[in-house]
C-alpha cells in the first residue's frame, strides 16, 4: 500500500511541475517547448508506472498464481 501511495505522489508531482512550467511558457511563441514538456512528462510518468508494475505488481501476481514455466 505504501508503494502505491508513493506512485500516486510521484505522478502528482510530475503533473504539478508540468502545470507550473507551462504557466511560465508563452503559449503562442513556445509551442514546440510545450510539446517537448508534455512528452517528457508522459515518459516520466510511464517510467514510474512501469517501475511500480515490474517491482510490485508482477511479484504479487507471481506469488498468487504459480505458472509452471
Question: What does this entry look like structurally?
Answer:
The protein starts with a helix and ends in a 5-residue tail after the last helix. It has 2 helices and no strands. With 69 residues, it is mostly helical. It has one domain (2-64).
Short structural description:
The chain is an all-alpha fold. It has helices at residues 2-24, 31-64.
How far the N terminus sits from the C terminus, by CA atoms, comes to 29 Å
Mean pLDDT: 88
The parts where pLDDT drops under 50 for at least 5 residues are none
What Rg do the Cα atoms give? 17 Å
By secondary-structure content and strand pairing, the structural class works out as mainly alpha
Q: Describe the biggest sheet?
A: none
Please state the overall shape, judged from the principal axes of the Cα atoms: elongated
How many helices? 2
| Tally of domains | 1
Q: Which percent bin holds the helix content?
A: over 70%
The oligomeric state of the chains shown is single chain
Q: Please report which band the strand proportion falls in: under 5%, 5-15%, 15-25%, 25-35%, 35-45% or over 45%.
A: under 5%
Task: Compute the number of strand runs.
Answer: 0
Instruction: Tell me the series of helices and strands, N- to C-terminal.
Output: HH
